[in-house]
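As a warm-up, study this chain.
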Amino acid sequence: MRLINTYLKGDRVIWVLVLIISVYSLLSVYSTAGQLAFKYKGGNTEYYLVQRFIMLSLGFGIMYLAHKVKYTVFSKLSVIGMIITVPLLLITLIMGANLNSATRWLMIPGLGISFQTSDLAKLTLVTYVARMLAKNQDNIKDFKTGFLPIAIPVGIVCALILPANFSTAAMLFLICMILMFIGRVSLKHIGILTGSAVAGFGLLILLAMAAPKLLPRLDTWKSRVLTFVGTNQVDEVKNTSGQIALSKEKYQSDLAKMAIAEGGLLGTGPGNNINKYRLPQGYSDFIYAMIIGEYGSIFGGMVILLAYLILLYRAVRIATKSEYAFATFLVIGLSLSMVIQAFINMSVAVGIFPVTGQPLPMISMGGTSTLFTGLTLGMILSVSRSLDKKDKENHAAETGNN
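Now compare it with the structure written out below.
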C-alpha cells in the first residue's frame, strides 16, 4: 500500500475504478473475440487476450506518465494540438482508410496501424476550449474577443468530424456547449452557435439528398434512425432451414437484446453466452450487452454503470476543489467526454438509443481509443495530484493564475 501511495498520486478511487474496468475489459474481450480468432487467427483466442493486455498496459502507462505532468502543460500543448488536429481531420476526410463503411482512420505509413483522428480531435478540442474559457473570463461576454475564439475552433473541428462520424461530432459539440455554459458564455451567443450548427446540418442534409456523394453515410444514418423508431421496412430473410432470420438492419440490436435477456440478473457465466458467436462487434460497440449477458445485470451491467457514475462524481469533486479556472473546465470537459460516450454505448446496447458505433471507454477492444482514454484519465489525475497536500503549495506556485 505504501508503494501505491508513493507512485500513484491523485484520486485513489479513480485508480481503483480503472483497475476494475480493465479487468472487465480483459475478460470480456477474451470471451467475445472468438469470432475474430476463428476468422483471422485460426482459432487462437489467446492472441486477442494478449493484444488487449498490451493495449491496456500501454493505456495505463500513458495514464501514469500523464498524471505526473503538471496540468498547465496540457493547456499549452492544446494550441499545438489544434494546429495538428485540423489538417489531420481534413486528410482523414479526403483520403482516410475506409473501415466498416466509415472513413475515420488514417494508416500510419510503414507500420500498417490505423489511427482514429477523431480521438485526438476530441481530447485536443476539449482541452483547448477549457484553455480559452479560462483565459477569456474577463471578457467572456464579448462576442468578438470572448465568444468567437472559442466558437470558431468548435465549429471547424465538429464540421470535419461530422461526415464520417455524426455521433462523435454531436457528442463533442454538446460537451463544448456545456463547457461554454459553465464558463459563463452568454446564453445568446450559445444559442447563436447552436442554431447555426442545426441550420448548417439541415442544409448539408438537403445538399446530400441532391448529391449523395457529398455525404455517403446519410443512408446509414437514416436507416439507423428508422430502424430504432420501428418504421424501417426491411424484407425478412429466410435461412437455410426455411426459418425467418433476423432482419438485416435490426440484426445487431436484436442480438444484443437476446444476449441481455439470456444473461438475466446473474448472467450465464464467463464464456457461456452463445450470442458471443453471433453478435457482430460484441467485443467493441456491443460489449456492454455481452457483459450483461455473461455477468448479469447485477454483477455486470450495474457494476459498469456505477463505475462511470462514480468516475463522474469524483471528477466533479476534483473540479470543485480546484482554485484555477483551467483545471476546473479541463476536468469537467474530459470527464463528460468519457461518461457521455459510455452512456451512449450502454444506451445503444440496451436498445434505448439508435446504433452509433461509440466504443465503451477503456473496455471495448480498440487501440487509439484505449490510449487516448488513458491520456484523458491521466490528465484528470494530474489536476487531482495538484490538490494533494504535499504537492499543492509547490504546484500552485508554478501554476499562477491560469
